[in-house]
């Protein structure tokens, strides 16, 4: 008789800058995992793409390496869940991508936004989808861009898939989309979680190109023989539909009841509130929760972790040798430098608009700014200014959410890569004037994927229970009273700076277009 094997579940998150694959036990404890970075592609200014092959390669390498290491047994893996960043990729009948993925940071579809507003109407789109029309963040303008600029791609397209759908197709051979991510296509009814065929027809998007919707915990299919050979997983292992990365993070952070709030801080930053109804405010984003009967309203900033990565790539070399000698990571060395700078960052203010901005200003022309540089500005001042600027952006959204009547707990759970930074975590507590709970498992997306997968195959009775249990016991960082007034003043200046510069951002964009550096 074979020895009984403890069941584990695999969570996969396809992120903007890398893919995480983490195996969890049924208590929500990470058993093993791996991460692979990949490069964004910038064919022109304002265009941001990735090669979907890089996602699949990362999944294969991550899963295969963990199983090969002996840290987990393939036969122990009971199910797989997948979450993802935003994109809508054209694929053929074999699931092969026909174009690079156009990412949420991409700003090319300005004309398409204008067309949708004129021919369909912003009010109608918002009434149906619960979201505004915006390029990059939502898929419909990108689909219209394909129609106008790459009709050859449209002619060959069988389905459009979000990144998790693309990976699930590679794993199972099935074409799918989860109901939380489909809300950001601007082609679905947010209330029913179904495609709005009239909206698709009026936008000239063939409905047959839209994949079948699944709820987050529903099984799409089993791992194929070919995918099993590549990854090391057992053929037939169930794969559930999963969720939008933010929704998976909500589950992983234990934000599963109305009033729960959390920060999911990775490449982009998101402040999310769980509600029992959609919160219709067009400065925010709405989506369906993975928990039936619940919703998420989301305030998102484009330039969170990606701002620090940009700074690392440009200026990290000065710390690389120091980090290597001390046996620490480069990010730990950068965090140390930020810790040497006092709150207020030596008089610097940073606007994190490296690729335009979403909530709450919705300005694709906005650009990053360091304000207040002087001869005494240090490396640490600039890093702290980045951290504070991202926190200020989140505070803008928080004030809107609370002003719109959303119930919120008195504390915020913090997950995502940024939670690895003690300095940045404290900045959030001080700027937002809320206790911050640094979750024990800060990879909230993959944990949420794993919880949904476990629920989908009947290993747990309720995703709520496992989510709450996994989120317990995190360290609490309280706001420091001596810095609250300082940050309130800096926040007011941060808000004024954008108002003063927004006209100049548009002038700058026109100048770049005239000189050939178009969007």
Automatic annotation (TrEMBL):
Domain spans labelled Carbohydrate kinase FGGY N-terminal = 8-252
**Which keywords annotate this record?**
Kinase, Transferase
One biological-process term from Gene Ontology?
carbohydrate metabolic process
Drop me one GO molecular function for this one. kinase activity
PANTHER family xref list: SUGAR KINASE
Q: Which family does it belong to?
A: Belongs to the FGGY kinase family.
| UniProt key word Plastid | no
Official protein name in the record: Carbohydrate kinase
For this protein, the record's InterPro entries field holds: ATPase_NBD, Carb_kinase_FGGY, Carb_kinase_FGGY_CS, FGGY_C, FGGY_Carb_Kinase, FGGY_N
Which residues does the UniProt record annotate as the domain Carbohydrate kinase FGGY C-terminal?
A: 271-456
Q: Which residues form a coiled coil?
A: none
Q: Which Gene3D superfamilies match?
A: 3.30.420.40
UniProt key word rRNA processing: no
